[in-house]
Prior knowledge:
By secondary structure, this protein is of the alpha/beta class. The chain contains 3 helices and 17 strands. It is globular, with a radius of gyration of 18 Å. Helix 1 (3-11) packs across helix 2 (60-71). The longest helix has 12 residues, at 60-71. Helices cover 11% and strands 27% of the residues. Pfam families: YkuD (PF03734). Residues 84-259 form the L,D-TPase catalytic domain.
Amino acid sequence: MRRYQKYLLVMTGAVLFAYAGAAGTAVYGQTDGRLTGQAMVGINGKGETGPGIGLKDINTEASDKEQELMGNIPAASETDSLILVVGQGEADISLSYHTKDDKGIWTEEFVTAGRYGKNGATGDKKEGDKKTPLGTYRFTMAFGVKENPGSILPYHQLTDTDYWVDDPGSSHYNQLVDSSSTKKDWKSAEHMAAMVPFYNYGLALDYNSDRVPGKGSAIFLHCMNGAADTGTSGCVKVSEEYMKKLVTSVDEETRIVIVSDISQLEQE
Length: 268
């Protein structure tokens, strides 16, 4: 494997998690070749320690390889903040948040574990396939059942009448609607305020912004419900601790890049 590819496995926090009860315990060093010994934030949102070398201790070498990683992501030239989601098999993911300073130097702020689609990810998303759309996206809004924690993006605190329509036959497909003031023409929709703790905080991706019927709807980055949480219907989710950090950090220029395998970032 090429040197930078080995590094990408480390920098995206590709760590296998074995779960002991609800808390979850990080296991370092998978034997199938996908992962390397590297400390990573636990899926329960708490910092884990282990025999791996911490990113902040690698100093210059880590910085050089961080720039190499970002050099493999076209969207990195368009923004100064980027979220990278990398599939780890089945519904498991690693999510890392990166920022660029005024000198053009990238820094990985954190990496944590999470989940995406129950059936993995796809480049051809369909409504109801329980897959997460691959690609690069922006965020259109922040939302949550909880009060605004200090969002940069416009923040909508969810009410009991908020629904996100997922019926391809509706004129409001892939839109947030207030059912108290919108004439109902949908057969199905997500009752947003009822999705606790998942929607305690969330960010809406601009996926299918043209609202093409059947191409998929309600693709969010949102909270998960502990270590035993399963995959999603298409969203990406991490612990509430990290969702709160992201809601208060990202802006309209932030990109989220979703790949099912780190090799998709390989330069040819």
